[in-house]
Design goal:
The protein is α+β, with helices and mostly antiparallel strands. It is 19% helix and 32% strand. The chain binds (2R,3S,4R,5S)-2-(hydroxymethyl)piperidine-3,4,5-triol.
Length: 713
């Protein structure tokens, strides 16, 4: 086992007591340094400085992890009330250690210690060299006599001193997730936070982009992209001070969450991940995609299954016969799996609508008389896999679970309950409830080992905010709920490491990188209108790779063709939520061929480099391409949304190819009988031509789409 070793080669000493700590990736440099006062400062964050001596010329900078109660007038990273009631803390550098668990990864931990109070703060930085991503978190502990109370406990604090700051947030609502909105930051605070408890997002996603000095485009400009791995209340505070300097404080939302730590206990914050690109947002996204697939996502390097889901095809109205018929549809489409959604459980209160039955995880006898086993077997016989929907953290008041265990439910003892989607949230701070939630998956997997996939839903934020279990520690509820969830997911991962799972939360409520340690993909939005999905997928793609974006072809937006809808969905983990009766024969043939194309292109789309070529925000068209890691295979998706009459259309320059190689560009995903302007066999171009002159991708057709496969010859 590797232990931390004091690494003097990684630190320079200024005189007797000035230590310099360099945390770097191939392109990014973060320099921390101690001052004459023994405190730790952030001297630099930006392009990696390669001349060691230059580091000596850097200014001291701003205190790296500012504590409350001292001389700073702006937002602190940490604020504690000590046992004696004193609300101040001054931290001094004690030491730092560096280890290299693998050639590509460096882990640095800097230890700070209170000058008057025995509080220890450890700042952790894991730097991924190739991917240019830094993961950072904080541990807080103490040896005071009684618990200390923290009312701020950030994962990270970063400082910038630039001429201007342009923030992009990704906000919206249910079915309008991740709409990119840009705003300049001026004096004062801009806070992006949520208080939903059981999810990070409904109104705002836990990630942001921050451009410095000038707006960043896809290919030009300095931009930092940051995201928090926490499936609950989060907060990013951007504060510009009186000198025009910006601090970015990221972590759990401390709102209503004062947290006590006992002597000897360690509080570990969630991880904050960031990348810094000097060549625009596209590179920042590719950095995060690579890092996530290599280090963070469950089965990040593995394959993903195509599927047919029954939700929009049947909603709650199904029986065995209908499901078997849909399984046949899945076989005809050529997908890998059939996914049974909500509505299969509950007997005293059958789950025939979202008003009842949630919590009673036994098959409804008159709907599925032969149980789930019959369905897994039927799927097996048809040569496809079987997946199942669950929503294990939630309960309908009208359920046997609620009748039996009202004490397992988050709700106020002295007020009437109010519901979000007719349901309440189970109290995952309670270990008994954690056991019960783990048991739902474990029992199903034990009874039906052929279940090959779960869709794990979570439709309600925490309402009626009171934990019967926590009693007088209610301010721990938001933090301990999420930790309880992770305990359960950790156990599932340990026992079923290869079980793929999709995380859903009434659409894209749970879209953060800590959750993705336990899930192979997430459901980005309940909105599957392909036009909206172009924007939604564009938004998520800033931070997440195509591999985790579940994208289903449905009947939303009947004005769009099945081709348009499928072409959009092929830019993620492709699935269908539609029945063949909703299509004509030509559509069916098209979909079958598209699934075949997708299977061939999966390594490019899911594991390649993504280049966003034309933004849907900029006009009436959009285009994105994916290039396989070897640069010899690519696929380009182009969409005309609502072109204007006689608008000017220019060729689109491609990216990521090898200039000196020859490629064949061939249109695929054509409707039966349709012809391409590239001809039946495609056309031959050099990479140089494709990247400098480009291709005419757009047309004047409304809701028109084109998919072009590009193969090196
Ligand atoms: C909300 C999800 O987002 C839908 O896809 C579906 O699974 C329903 N829940 C089922 O209740």
């Amino acid at each position: 086992m590797l232990t931390y070793a004091l690494c003097m080669s990684c630190s320079l000493l200024f005189g007797a007591e000035h230590t310099v700590i360099e945390i770097s990736t191939n392109n990014i440099g973060l320099v921390l340094r101690t001052g004459n006062d023994g405190r730790l400062y952030q001297s630099y964050l930006g392009k990696k400085l390669t001349h060691k001596d230059d580091i000596l010329h850097l200014p001291l900078g701003t205190e790296a992890y500012i504590t409350g109660g001292m001389e700073d007038y702006f937002e602190p990273a940490l604020s504690v009330v000590n046992t004696d009631g004193n609300p101040s803390l001054l931290l001094k550098y004690i030491g730092h250690e560096v280890k290299k668990p693998e050639a590509n990864v460096t882990e640095t931990v800097v230890t700070l210690q209170g000058d008057k109070y025995p509080v220890t703060v450890k700042l952790y930085y894991t730097a991924y060299q190739k991917e240019n991503v830094i993961k950072t978190w904080t541990e807080i502990s103490h040896r005071e006599k009684k618990p200390i109370v923290m009312n701020r406990y950030a994962s990270s604090m970063l400082h910038f001193n630039k001429s201007s700051y342009l923030l992009t947030e990704f906000s919206g609502d249910w079915a309008t997730e991740v709409r990119a909105k840009e705003q300049p930051l001026a004096f004062g605070k801009k806070i992006i936070d949520t208080k939903l408890g059981a999810r990070a997002n409904m109104h705002c996603s836990p990630f942001f982009e921050l451009a410095f000095d000038a707006p960043a485009t896809e290919t030009v400009g300095e931009v930092l992209v940051g995201t928090l791995g926490w499936t609950g209340n989060f907060r990013f505070t951007f504060e510009v001070d009186n000198n025009g300097a910006l601090r970015v404080v990221s972590g759990i939302n401390p709102w209503a969450s004062d947290y006590d730590i006992k002597a000897g206990e360690t509080f570990r914050t969630p991880d904050f991940y960031f990348t810094y690109s000097f060549t625009g947002k596209g590179q920042a996204s590719r950095n995060l995609h690579d890092w996530a697939r290599n280090y963070q996502i469950k089965n990040g390097k593995g394959d993903r299954m195509t599927l047919l889901n029954n939700w929009e095809a049947t909603y709650f109205n199904f029986n065995e016969e209908k499901l078997l018929h849909l399984m046949d549809n899945a076989v005809e489409l050529g997908v890998d799996m059939f996914l049974l959604d909500d509505g299969w459980f509950g007997n005293k209160y059958p789950r025939s609508s979202d008003r009842q039955g949630l919590g009673d995880w036994k098959e409804t006898a008159d709907k599925l008389p032969h149980g789930i086993g019959y369905l897994t077997e039927a799927a097996h016989k048809k040569g496809i896999k079987f997946g199942l929907w669950i929503e294990p953290e939630m309960v309908n008041p009208k359920s046997e679970l609620y009748e039996k265990h009202p004490d397992w439910v988050i709700h106020m003892p002295n007020r009437e309950e109010y519901y979000f989607r007719n349901q309440l949230v189970l109290d995952l701070t309670n270990p008994q409830v954690q056991e019960y939630v783990f048991g739902i998956v474990d029992r199903l997997m034990t009874q039906y080992p052929d279940i090959a996939y779960f869709k794990w839903d979570c439709n309600s934020p925490i309402t009626n905010i009171y934990s019967p279990y926590l009693k007088d520690k209610q301010s721990h509820l938001y933090v301990d709920f999420v930790r309880g969830l992770y305990n359960v997911l950790e156990r599932i991962n340990a026992k079923y490491p290869n079980l793929p799972m999709m995380l859903c939360s009434g659409g894209g409520g749970r879209t953060d990188y800590e959750a993705l340690k336990y899930f192979t993909e997430f459901w980005p939005s309940d909105n599957t209108d392909p036009i909206e999905r172009l924007f939604i997928q564009w938004g998520y793609s800033q931070v997440f790779p195509a591999k985790v974006l579940s994208a289903h072809v449905t009947t939303w937006n009947s004005k769009s063709s099945i081709k348009f809808r499928t072409d959009v969905a092929m830019m993620g983990r492709l699935g269908f939520d539609i029945k063949l009766e909703d299509m004509n024969k030509g559509d069916e043939a098209y979909c079958r061929a598209a699934v075949e194309n997708y299977n061939r292109l999966k390594p490019v789309i899911l594991d390649g480099d993504m280049y966003r070529l034309v933004s849907p925000y900029e006009g009436n068209h959009t285009a994105t391409m994916y290039v396989g890691k070897a640069g010899d295979h690519a696929v380009l998706f182009a969409f005309d949304i609502h072109p204007r009459y006689a608008e000017k259309s220019l060729p689109v320059c491609l990216q990521g190819l090898k200039p000196d190689k020859m490629y064949r560009a061939k249109e695929i995903n054509l409707m039966p009988g349709a012809r391409s302007s590239l001809g039946a066999d495609g056309k031959r171009y050099s990479g140089e031509f494709l990247m400098n002159v480009g291709l005419n991708l757009f047309t004047t057709g409304q809701l028109n789409s084109r998919v072009i496969e590009i193969t090196e010859e």
